Amino acid sequence: MLGGPVLHGSILHGPHLLFQIVEIVSGAFRMGVFFSISGLLAGFGLRRRTPRAWFARHATRVGVPALFGLAVLCPLTSLVLQSALPPVEAAKILLFDWYHFWFLYGLLAYGGLTYLSLTLMNRRLLVRSIRLAKSAGQGRVLFLLSAAGFLLMFVVGLSVLALVPDRYQNLASLLRVIAAYAPLYGFGVLMAFSSSLRASMLKAWRLPATVLACTAILYLVWYGAMRAQLSPEAFARWDSIVTFAGATICPPSASLLILRSAMRVRGLGRWAHRLCSASFTLYMLHLPLLAAINAALLPLHWNYLLEYGLAVAVTIAACLVLHFSLVQRSPWLTFLLNGQRIDQETMRSARRGKPRPPVEQRS
């Protein structure tokens, strides 16, 4: 979640090399890895609960913050941006743009599909899917996940361009990302149901690392040598294809490497637990705070790196302070921002300054 402020910290800034690098790196793997890990955690949750009980809990813990974000935090962010931008640019901003909350709506969609699949699907089909993935091996699985993601992103992207009015193109364009990462989420669910599948996928690291290294070289060649050789129109036309490829090739490999490392972690320290407990609050609040801070810094005309670093640092600190001093002490704020109901005993412990148990990862 710390990647959110780093990525969005350049809001209201013009294009700079640093911001472009951050955006490329984030787009290449960050959200895809989140969805893959979310699918794995969803699968672990489904092993402990019935599909109906799991989906009811999932819909509450993800849906309540998603609705609160769209109804309250998104309009606040839009109003701040509209006040800071020139009239021509401000007119393009939608009041109810979903900004970074598209991620939560993606999780809701995946959760619904997972519930329907496990409710309607024969148990033997699930076992057969796991066996097919194991027999295919790591290399074929990585290829199929990347190919399916690229195809979905391309088809949905073309559909959005053809069907959605220009004013809503930016908002609807994120539908292609939600569609592209559905296979990753589903594969995460499969891995949770089979320890042998997890072992076969996470055993080797060389192939995933090679894929990431080759993709990095592709980006360097494209944005270095090829950008200078092509006309701006030709570069822009092909750049979307390169971006689609990177955003679908990297996440499966990065997910396996990250999960491989995570499985080796035996425990977290107290501060790591506290940071994890605040991560959802950080995710929810960082964009409106960044918009407000950057809007306040804009008239000062400081160096853009200074403004960027200051905005990111202040936003992270403010989110952590708000979480530990307000959110975890208020049942309503915990419910609206974290989708979690907390009992009175936990609330009294928080008010006495005792740390709450770490918030369970959202599945």
Task: Kindly describe this structure.
- Helix 3 packs antiparallel against helix 5, helix 6 packs across helix 9 and helix 13 crosses helix 14.
- It is globular, with a radius of gyration of 21 Å.
- It is 79% helix and 0% strand.
- The protein has a domain of 246 residues.
- With 363 residues, the protein is mainly alpha-helical.
How are the secondary structure elements laid out?
Layout: H1 3-8, H2 17-48, H3 51-84, H4 87-90, H5 102-120, H6 123-163, H7 169-180, H8 182-193, H9 195-202, H10 206-229, H11 232-262, H12 270-277, H13 279-297, H14 304-325, H15 331-338, H16 344-351
Helix pairs in contact: 2-5, 2-8, 2-11, 3-5, 3-13, 3-15, 6-7, 6-8, 6-9, 6-11, 8-9, 10-11, 13-14
Which features characterize this protein?
single chain, 363 residues, mainly alpha, 79% helix, globular, disordered C terminus
Give the overall silhouette: globular
Give me the oligomer status: single chain
Q: Helical amount among residues, as a percent range?
A: over 70%
- Strand tally is 0
How many helices does DSSP assign?
16
Poorly predicted runs are 358-363
Write the H/E string, N to C: HHHHHHHHHHHHHHHH
Largest sheet: none
Tell me what portion of residues adopts beta-strand conformation. Answer: under 5%
User: What Rg is obtained from the alpha carbons, in whole angstroms?
Assistant: 21 Å
Question: Which structural category fits the helices and strands?
Answer: mainly alpha
Cα end-to-end separation: 15 Å
Mean pLDDT: 89
